[in-house]
Amino acid sequence: MDVHLSGRLAVARLEELRAQISAAMKEPDVVLDLSAVDYMDTAGAWLVIDMQTAIQERGGRCNISGTSKVHDELLEVVRQSIPQKDDTAKPKDGFLDWVETIGRKTWSGVNALIEILGFLGLVVARLGTVIIHPRRLRLTSVVHHLQEIGLNAVPIVSLMAFLIGVVMAFQGAVQLRQFGAEVFVVDLIAISVLRELGILLTAIIVAGRSGAAFTAAIGSMKMREEIDAMQTLGLDPIEVLVLPRLLALIIALPLLGFVADVMGLLGGAMMAWIELDVSPGMFRTRLYDSVDVWHYAVGLIKAPFFAIIIGIVGCYEGMKVGGDAASLGRLTSTSVVLSIFLVIVADAMFSVFFAVIGV
After folding, report:
1. Strand ranges (DSSP E) for 66-210?
2. Which DSSP state fits 240?
3. Helix, strand, or coil here: 31?
4. Hey, CA dihedral for 254, 257, 261, 266, is it positive or negative?
5. Which has more confidence, 261 or 23?
6. Whether pLDDT at 91 is above 70
7. How far apart are the C-alpha atoms of 314 and 309, rounded to whole Å?
8. What does the pLDDT read at residue 306?
9. C-alpha distance from residue 95 to each of 98, 105, 136 (Å)
10. Would you tell me how many other CB atoms lie within 10 Å of the CB of residue 268?
């Protein structure tokens, strides 16, 4: 069936033209003759392309003839501008599809880990350059971030650790009282807080507080093209933005861990005194007699590694931010989740390692 269109193929005639070609839409083979068309705008071109696509999708054939060079170019531009239909199949629910999904996500996670390790290597290389040339270190920036990461976080870390000590002493008292072993609540609180909970929960708080701030700050600069301007001026973003934050975090996290340990023991001692009548003097004596200094050292050893994980992940995700606000929010959330996950994994590995070597 031949369909002859003439005159102006414009948006003003769109309904008229649609009615004219509606009968041809049911035919298996259609030829659109545009030789008599004087003018065509993008709406007219879209109508022609839409008709051709609809016929072809139901298995028919639709050819366009009689077009001028200008019309051909317009049709091609409009055809390229039309969004492609999502050909995604129905949701996969088979076992093999489930295995494929797991495999793809696992491979994506491995690639992300490799990229983070590559970013860590780049930061270590820049750190080596700063060690060789100490004048390149931005000490003012380090001190500023020390205040933001360390000093300003003391209240929340102290409150968290104090309450954790209180909760552990209370829960421990309920159980130990049944066996007449109330005095061992000191061992429970000291070992748990000094070895694990003090530094682990501090790292989690810092990851949610400072790690997210790193991603948001660097990501905002990436969105506003400030990092590109920095590189144009010959400044290295790793030295200017990443190293000061990472060094400040490595210094601040062990200090925050010490604060958390002290406050956790203080909270535990207070609750033990209230609930079990374990006096502060008895608590202190039991603490000195039964708790090895290595319990504190184990937590202290973990702190710099947790700091590196949080700093590297936070800055890496910030560097990945694109030009839209959606990526900033998404990567900030990813930064917090990934940092906390890797910190917990590292803590588990440290626990196994220290158990194997008998510390």
Report:
1. none
2. I
3. strand
4. positive
5. 261
6. no
7. 8
8. 94
9. 5, 15, 56
10. 30
